[in-house]
Fold this protein.
Amino acid sequence: MARRIILDCDPGIDDSVALSMALFHRSLDIVAITAVEGNVPAEMATRNVQTVIEQLDPPRLPRFGAATPNDNSDYRDACFIHGRDGLGEAGFVTADHHQRHLSEKIICDEVRAAPGEISIVCLGPLTNVARAMQREPQFIENVAEIIMMGGSFNGIGNITQTAEFNIYCDPESAREVFQAPVKKILIPLDITSQVQFALNFIDMLPDETNSVGAFLRQVVPYLFRSYHQQLGLESVQIHDAIALLQLLEPELFELEAWAVDVEVKGELTRGMTVFEKRRSRNPAHNLEVARVVDVSAARQAVIKCLHS
Ligand code: BDR
Ligand code: CA
């Protein structure tokens, strides 16, 4: 039976690749896609989720949740990587969706309707899950598991010296979710960034006769430009697609249980994920962390999923 999933995301080019993999995958039943402020501000994230669904035109339409701004005064977007519109400045036009529900309401509703059955895949900041917990404190007990792209095991960040982008955007929410009594799997930056894609990735996308190929061929080239111009890199990292693989091909990862918290105060370390590495302390583990990935198999799995 297909696994029932809520995809919480902030498209974003790598989010778009992950959505392209997930929406057509036989083993997943995407019950909802909920937008969260992150790579782009809330209104644009909401619009981009609609755009991606429209462009991909999947066989079953998921429910859809709208983002609202987070409460973090340090928040900044990542348009320098994903383009001013978050989708590679491809110029997509999307009609306004009038009937909007907040992401956290959709998350609570879907989990309440199918207790214990729904996994949440978080590909952006953890704002919506934290808000769902505040809205309905018992909601978390009914979540099957949460799979998150975020944080950094080795302590090296991508938005600051120490913080990974998704956690940096809303550290307080991340801290709340990390402490929540539910099974959690974290796919950190030091795992996702090992799987690099060279320029020939574009040639390996489905062709334009297919909605996935037609969409990604308009969006992905921008990522190569921004990695080159902003980061001086010739290969790109598609973090969210790698995190999604944890669900689709779990054997590609080795997981370990760890005690981890989020720094919410430090001037240089706000948004850093802090792992209890003093083994002698015998800490209470609060989540599982991917520590090893089969890099070449993961790269192939992304391409295979995009063709499925
Ligand atoms: C994460 O930050 C975002 O820019 C990406 O979409 C990914 O979710 C990587 O740090
Ligand atoms: Ca993302």
User: Anything to note?
Assistant: The two ends are 17 Å apart (CA to CA).
